[in-house]
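Entry:
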Amino acid sequence: MSSSHASIDHEQSDTGHNDTASIDDILPIGHIVLGHSTTSKKRLLEDLAGMFAGEGIDLNARTIFSKLIERENLGSTGIGAGVALPHGRIDGLSTTLAIFMSLTEPLDFDAADKQPVNLVFALLVPEHATDVHLNLLAQLAGLFREPDLRAALTASSSAEEIHALLTGSSSKNTDDAS
């Protein structure tokens, strides 16, 4: 099943200003977009900015896009093996927001390994949340190093399955003992 969403559903729990955040805290199932179609890195960042702006936060898509581009200008957030982690620090944002996207067609993202990107995990973090930001990026980079996980994410046809893969939980949270 391949669907492209123009907006994302806001189901996020209140994570406040915690020093740590898990993927489960910041990525509700409604923030998982399957089969997104886009034509360029710039257009992808514009699409992400529009989705984030639709979250009811007091920021417009242009401001968010500027922050994402500002970070990309420091160096590509394409981390290799078909994965990109675009992110930006936003003044006035009170909680971390995330969107996961699979793309219909791999996209050139100027990654160091020159491989096109088909999996995108985007983050917006509060300006002051340096530790949260760095911890999440490290956690995500570690996850996406796993070839089996990347293959499973690419093959997945449901947001629930992707959420379970990224959070390490079963789809119904029946594995609470771990």
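Residues 1-18, 171-178 have pLDDT under 50 and may be disordered.
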